[in-house]
Amino acid sequence: MPEIVNDDQSRSNIRCTTKEVDSISIEICASDIPALRASLNLWLRLAGVSEEMHDIVSRHT
Questions:
Q1: Is the C-alpha dihedral spanning 38, 42, 47, 49 positive or negative?
Q2: To the nearest 10°, the Cα dihedral for 51, 13, 11, 6?
Q3: Which of 19, 35, 57, 58 gets the most CB atoms within 10 Å of its CB?
Q4: How is residue 18 annotated by DSSP?
Q5: Are the beta carbons of 24 and 17 closer than 8 angstroms?
Q6: Could you give the C-alpha distances from 59 to 37, 52, 53, 56, in angstroms and in order?
Q7: What was the pLDDT predicted at 42?
Q8: pLDDT at 22
Q9: Higher confidence at residue 7 or residue 18?
Q10: Does the structure show a pLDDT above 90 at 1?
Q11: Residue 7: which pLDDT band, with cuts at 50, 70 and 90?
Q12: Distance of CA 52 to the CA centre of its chain
């Protein structure tokens, strides 16, 4: 939850939506290149962890 709460000092805005059951769309808008890069790194890392957790749970159910 802390990753998706925007505060007044944020240099980027993120919108996550689901288009289909098995996909997610992440839209990132940033005020500068370093903020964009940091946001991309964070959200790609979170998506990767989410996919890994899904794979682990799927194997054990």
A1: positive
A2: -90
A3: 35
A4: -
A5: yes
A6: 33, 11, 10, 5
A7: 94
A8: 81
A9: 18
A10: no
A11: low
A12: 14
The amino acid present at 22, given as its one-letter code, is D
DSSP 1-17: -GGG---TT-SEEEEEE
Distance (Å, whole) CA 56 – CA 31 = 37
pLDDT digits (tens, 9 = 90+) for 23-54: 889 999 999 999 999 999 999 999 999 999 99
Cα(48)–Cα(30) distance, rounded to whole angstroms?
21
- CB contact at 8 A, 47 and 22: no
Give DSSP secondary structure letters for 20-56: STT--EEEEEESSHHHHHHHHHHHHHHHHHHHHHHHH
